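Researcher: Next entry: Putative hydrolase (Actinacidiphila reveromycinica).
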Amino acid sequence: MRATLLQIDVDPAEEPAARRLRVAALVREQAGADLVVLPELWPVGAFAADRFPVEAERLEDGPTAEAMSAAARDAGVWLHAGSIVERDPEGPLYNTSLVFGPDGGLRAAYRKIHRFGFDRGEAVVMAAGEEVVTVRHPEAAIGLATCYDLRFPELFRLLVDAGAELLVLPAGWPARRLAHWRVLVQARAVESQAYVLACGTAGTHAGVAQAGHSMIVDPWGEVLCEAGPDEQVLTADLAPSSVASTRADFPVLRDRVLGLDRPKGPSRP
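Model: Predicted structure:
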């Protein structure tokens, strides 16, 4: 299974409409990949909270969804299109990830559960999602998470319990916490015994330098490939069957106690 991460430079001088056209062209260049992944909020920038209400779009027929659906169909690829500022018909804004099939059909949408900002930015402007979301790719079950979710391992446990073998994480991670990014991406792979595909943004927007350093990590926590700080296309060949073999050879997930319903033995008098 060939996976490609597109680490996009979110330059504030580039209008969202122009960036959509550019990114759609990049997606079309990935024909032959089994899965293509984009970063979090790449049309506007993850820290540009003042622009969220202006750039918000409908899930069904917004400009990003339409452009990415067409690009996925033209390339014949599964596309995790990163996330957009979604405007719900009832009013709230959400940080919503979109997954398209090779026919351009929307296969899954995930509203980010953990919002970053500590009473500022996204945490104030966005509403929180409530659903744990997986989607079935022909090669593997994919669990969806976004950026700040990375710091909450309980979400990844729920994704594993839901059958996830690949964990896909679009992000807009700041450069000043790059060390945390590396540790946490590998930790989520090790504890979940799953592939982690973590795709970040490059450049600087809203005054926040982005970490870049998108990564693909295998179920043993080995980094298969890692980008630098600039815009980059990152590709690796995955072996989804290795998830099951890793879990069988080193059955740590079987030994979970907390948060797991375990069969009860006979009671003692």
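Model: Note for the record: The radius of gyration is 18 Å.
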